[in-house]
Specification:
Elements lengths: L1 H39 E4 L2 E4 L2 E5 L4 E6 L6 E2 L4 E5 L2 H64 L5 H62 L1 E3 L4 E3 L9 E2 L4 E7 L5 E7 L11 E6 L6 E9 L25 E8 L3 H4 L8 E6 L6
């Protein structure tokens, strides 16, 4: 019995030794692989996938009539996302159109008045010529009667009659001139009034274009191909102009990764360097990319309250510099990566430039 227990203990010890040996070998391999990775690559896990996530903003206020999208739905550029009640905007448009028609009718009346006054001025001008001729003739007759009166061949009464007739003709001549000047002046006034009405028509047309824009804003469409985010609005809600209604992820632009490398890791990184990216969501699956830019300042410098080391409370902290990396590959491959995902980024050191 004692011998049996001894054989069992030896077997257990042997198995335990093998297991321990395998663990040590596995840890050694893992350690060597990790050290090799640190030796060959600059790597960081402080990195996230980013893409343009833009708000859908209402440019007109009112009640929502219909919502035409669902959460996470793919949409094409120009697809209707929601419809706002446009009746008030249509009424404003119709009022402005009526004002334009009224101003155009007023413009027609003024044009007719100008035509009438031009006819009146032409008639007055003809009367001026006729009156001028009468005054000239009457002046000659008056001069002759003055000579006859001086020679006692005409009476005082005849001379006075000629004088009165001349005065009347001169008065008619001045009256015709005044009528012509008045018609001409009134024509100028109406032309100025016509210019004011024409300017008002231009203003109303611009206002009409604005009202048409407001009507078009009541139909909110997708600005580009993309995927809708969370839906938080329903038909019947009252919204204001400028209010954010939803978010859309832009599918027309490339995705990128922002990797926050330590300042001690970026000495030899250059734009165009190849990068390998591994997403936590897809273990073992790698994505390829390239560095497209390095931030001009550290992340802390862009913070709301950047550190001020001149205050005397200085503690040296390794800063991180955002490195922007474009993800290469087909749309089907890059669609696996979603905005905000955590990723690990590896930049091979063999690319270092001297």
């Amino acid at each position: 019995m004692k011998k049996k227990h001894t054989v069992t203990d030896r077997l257990i010890t042997k198995i335990t030794g093998w297991i321990a040996g395998l663990v040590v070998v596995a840890l050694g391999i893992w350690g060597i692989h990790t050290l090799w990775g640190y030796y060959t690559c600059e790597q960081t896990n402080d990195a996230q996938v980013q893409e343009y996530v833009n708000p859908v903003i209402a440019r007109a206020g009112g009640f929502i009539v219909a919502v035409k999208f669902e959460e996470n739905q793919y949409v094409k550029k120009g697809d209707t996302l929601l419809i706002i009640d446009n009746r008030e905007y249509l009424l404003q448009q119709e009022q402005t159109e009526a004002s334009i028609r009224k101003a155009q009718a007023q413009l027609g009346v003024l044009e007719s008045n100008i035509h009438t006054l031009e006819k009146t001025a032409a008639s007055s001008q003809a009367q001026i010529q006729a009156s001028k001729a009468k005054v000239w003739k009457q002046q000659l007759d008056y001069n002759r009667y003055q000579q006859l009166f001086a020679e006692e061949s005409a009476t005082q009464q005849q001379l006075e009659h000629m004088q009165a007739t001349l005065d009347v003709d001169k008065s008619d001549y001045r009256s015709a001139q005044d009528n012509y000047n008045a018609a001409s002046s009134r024509t100028l006034d109406i032309r100025a009034e016509k210019a004011v009405v024409a300017a008002e028509i231009l203003r109303l047309k611009a206002l009409l274009d604005r009202h048409k824009l407001d009507v078009s804003y009541t139909i909110v469409t997708a600005a580009y191909d993309g995927r809708m985010g969370r839906r938080t609005i329903e038909a019947g809600q009252m919204i204001d102009a400028g209010e954010t209604l939803a978010f859309i992820v832009n599918n027309e632009t490339d995705k990128w990764v922002v990797a926050n490398y330590k300042e001690t890791q970026i000495a030899h990184m250059r734009i165009g360097d190849a990068v390998t990216v591994e997403a936590d969501a897809y273990p073992g699956h790698t994505f390829k990319g390239r560095i497209i830019s390095l931030s001009p300042a550290t992340g802390s410098s862009f913070s709301l309250l950047p550190p001020d080391n001149a205050t005397g409370n200085y503690v040296k902290i390794v800063q991180r510099l955002p490195v922007r990396i474009r993800i290469d590959g087909t749309r089907q491959e890059t669609d696996l990566l979603k905005s905000g995902m955590n990723v690990n980024v590896y930049v091979p050191k063999k690319q270092h430039h001297g």
